[in-house]
Amino acid sequence: MRPCAKHVSLLLAAALVAALGLLLPSGGGAWAQDEEKPYQIKDGVVDWYTFSGFRRYHAECHVCHGPDGLGSSFAPALTETMKTMSYEDYLEIVVNGRENVGTTAQSKMPGFGENRNVMCFIDDIYAYLMARADGVLGRGRPKKEAKPAEAKERDEDCMS
Amino acid sequence: MKKVLSSACLVAAAAMLVPQAASANDELLVMQDNPAWYVMPTLDYANTRYSKLSQINADNVGDLQVAWTFSTGVLRGHEGAPLVIGDTMYVHTPFPNNVYALDLSADGRVKWKYEPKQDPDTIPVMCCDTVNRGVAYGDGKIILHQADTTVVALDANTGEVAWTVTNGDPKKGETGTSAPMVVKDKVIIGISGGEFGVRGSITAYNLADGKLAWRAYSMGPDSDTLMDPEKTTHLGKPVGKDSGITTWEGDQWKIGGGTTWGWYAYDPEADLIYYGTGNPSTWNPSQRPGDNRWSMTIFARDPDDGMAKWVYQMTPHDEWDYDGVNEMILVDMQVKGEDRKALVHFDRNGFGYTMDRLTGELLVAEKFDPAVNWATHVDMKTGRPQVVSKYSTSQNGEDVNTTGICPAALGTKDQQPAAFSPRTGLFYVPTNHVCMDYEPFRVSYTAGQPYVGATLSMYPAPGGDHLGNFIAWDADKGEIVWSNPEPFSVWSGALATAGDVVFYGTLEGYLKAVDAKTGRELYRFKTPSGIIGNVMTYVQGGKQYVAVLSGIGGWAGIGLAAGLTEDTAGLGAVGAYKALSNYTQLGGQLTVFTLPN
After folding, report:
1. Is residue B9 domain-resident?
2. Cβ–Cβ below 8 Å for A68 and B454
3. What pLDDT band is residue B557 in, cutting at 50, 70 and 90?
4. S-S: A31 plus which of A40, B230, B382, B480, CB 3.0-4.6 Å?
5. Per-residue confidence at B361, pLDDT binned at 50, 70, 90?
6. What is the pTM of this model?
7. SS (H, E, C) B484-499
8. Consecutive 10-residue averages of pLDDT for chain A (160 residues)
9. Rounded distance, CA B235 to CA B384, Å?
């Protein structure tokens, strides 16, 4: 089962990070298991969760971080960030946000801890960004596997 | 006791403030006719953006030179234009929304500066950059509409705060980006936040003291929408009881969108204000069945009490994010051989509408970009666009990627205002030439968090290698007269002048002047950053000046900065498209042009 962040999103942020840290995504279904990577790519087709990450990223993050994680004048390129950022640091910043207020430009990474549209898919977005950062997934909409039953169940559970 | 006292003070204060004119509106009606000044963000109440100045004209505009420049000190998207009243220019900035009063008689020396303190938490709830579309003037005051929705009246001479009022709550995703409009004794203020499930409204505050006069929501019961079920009409028919609820399921209208972040117009003879409402929330149409009235709607309201006279919903049950907020240009013209008090509107959805602004009758609705494909045409009886099933994200449903929709969510035109020249009878329209794939999916609502529910990818329209056009439009025939391709979307407001020149800016940073009759380019100058501001003009010391703000950003700047996706090879244009960052960088500068002595 894929973790659903909803149940923990109500906890204190520190506890959340700790909790989710233990629940690193594990690929599902018939896809070849890869211990290291949160995504699966076979013959140019990505697993549903990575696709879901693409979709949610482009709904929730791309207005600031640019299309395909490439960055914009507003926020850094996550294709670069994720080359070095740990899963724990990623969680911490997406849950709690971060502020950068200067004299010529002010920008703020909002905290998404209470937003199900992000928290339910936080691992999906992570998988997508890691695939982009690793250079194994190109720009644009990836080809995807069909939505597995357990993903449907997970989404329904988490979103309602 | 307290009440009596304060109203007594008020009368005294009002008496001092208004020596000659009966209301600020009378004053502004006179001031807007003085072409030496630039007294409102839209140039005039009719939103024509036409200046009677002709010192700079088609014959000499090629000699234009930079006279002076001013750095705003902020590096974000700079929309709108400064005002000029007498010898003072008022320049606004994006967040943190500083205002500068510059003394034009002393080389632009700063007379005063106002720097509001705003919670940075406001920034992330602004969907598409921290833009601001400008300040308004009325009765000796400069009215600023801040990002955090605070409305401030500043003494135009000293910058001292006369009053402040809070219009909304950024914690719920409500923000301020639009320019205010002063009408009669009121200030009209809109609201942003359609991507956060905000229920849109327009609010009138008393110019004298900032007290709320009326608020009209875009959806909800008649008492909220200020509609009369019998007297308010939609294409000539009474709207009926609670029309702002009956086309929604359950309580969805409460987070229904229909925000009001565009431009406002006023017809003093008809005594009506005009504006449009934005997209219904969320972008996933399956989650909000029905027409979603009165999102995507042109409103005509009485400025005194806010009552709606007529409405017209352009895009019922939006499935593409085609906000209806673009400016309403009020022109007296012939339409199909008949003299009309017309309203001309270039909508995001790609249709150019000509309406009778007194009755709300629909006269013309034609595509102002041939690429538009989501609807075949608008049925002139029902006013409904005839949606093409293939491009219907609602019919295709959740989790389905609908491809090749034109225009993209950016619209064939966004907020960047068009201009009208009575000398040519043409409208000059900055446009986008961009198409999209759109996949809606389920989202849940959390106050103050994005409520989007779709993923989009955008690319140039088929067959082309350019993302924008600058066009001249005949609003009677509903036809393009000439069209200049632009490599990027044109996100800058146009200015037409009696010198038969039309000015606009480009995302690469060019200020361009073209011949009003032919569109032939007469002048270009590359300013330090991309232009999403509106070109304005004024006279100082007997000389005509043209000015524009540079500072790339806004939705165009964010969406395009990293380049559009290149995986849509079937649609051509691969490789022809290059990232905007190869042309320009962030900036914040006013550039002022004039002819050499």
Report:
1. no
2. no
3. low
4. A40
5. very high
6. 0.90
7. EEECCCCCCECEEECC
8. 36 36 38 69 94 93 85 85 96 91 69 94 97 92 92 90
9. 11
- The answer to whether residues B352 and B413 touch, using CB atoms and an 8 Å cutoff, is no
Q: How many CB atoms lie within 10 A of CB B31?
A: 18
Collapse the DSSP code of A140 into the 3-class scheme (helix H, G, I; strand E, B; otherwise coil) and give the result: coil
Strand, helix or coil for residue A130: helix
**Segment B449-458, tens digit of pLDDT:** 989 899 888 8
Out of B44, B129, B291, B321, the active site residue is B321
- Residue range B130-144: average pLDDT? 96
CATH of the domain at B92: 2.140.10.10
CB contact under 8 A, A68 and B74: no
B564/A67 CB distance under 8 A: yes
Q: What is the pLDDT of residue A20?
A: 38
Residue B569 predicted with pLDDT over 80:
no
Domain total of chain B: 1
Q: Nearest residue of B to residue A102 by CA position?
A: B74
- Per CB-CB distance under 8 Å, the chain A contacts of B130 are 106
- Note if B437 is an active site residue: no
| B318-341 pLDDT per residue, tens | 999 999 999 999 999 999 999 999
Q: Quick one: pLDDT band at residue B16, thresholds 50, 70, 90?
A: very low
Label residues B516-528 b or e (16+ Cβ within 10 Å = b). Answer: bbebeebbeeebb
Sequence letter at residue B369: D
- Residue pairs between chains A and B whose CB atoms are closer than 8 Å: 116
In a domain, B188, yes or no: yes
A98 contact B CB<8A: no
Whether B161 is covered by a domain: the verdict is yes
Residue B444, domain extent: 32-594
| Cβ-based neighbours of B318, under 8 Å, separated by 6 or more | B279, B280, B285, B292, B295, B296
H/E element holding B341? Answer: strand B338-346
Domains of chain A: 5-159 (1.10.760.10)
Of B104 and B558, the structure prediction assigns the larger pLDDT to B104
Please name which of B462, B468, B413, B408 lies closest in space to residue B438, comparing C-alpha atoms. B408
Tell me the pLDDT tens digit for each residue of B197-240: 999 999 999 999 999 999 999 999 999 999 999 999 999 999 99
pLDDT score for B182: 97
> B350 vs chain A: nearest CA distance in angstroms?
23
Is the Cβ pair B449, A104 closer than 8 Å?
Answer: no
| DSSP states of B563-584 | ------GGGS-TTT---GGGT-
Residue B283 has pLDDT above 60, yes or no: yes
Distance from the B474 Cα atom to the nearest Cα atom in chain A, whole angstroms: 35
- Beta strands B50-51; B495-497: pairing state: parallel
pLDDT of B11: 36
Residue B567 binned pLDDT confidence (cut-offs 50, 70, 90): very low
C-alpha distances (whole Å) from B43 to each of B48, B51, B123, B513, B576 are 7, 8, 29, 18, 37
Q: Residue B128 has which token pair?
A: 């598409």
Region of B414 on the Ramachandran plot (φ > 0 left; ψ -120 to 50 alpha; else beta): beta
Min Cα–Cα distance to chain A from B125, Å:
8
Q: What are the chain B neighbours of A74 within 8 Å (beta carbons)?
A: 129, 553, 558
Task: For residue B192, list chain A residues with Cβ-Cβ distance below 8 A.
Answer: none
Q: What is the complex's ipTM, to 2 decimals?
A: 0.76
**B27 part of a folded domain:** no
Strand pairing partners for B312? B298
pLDDT at B267 over 70: yes
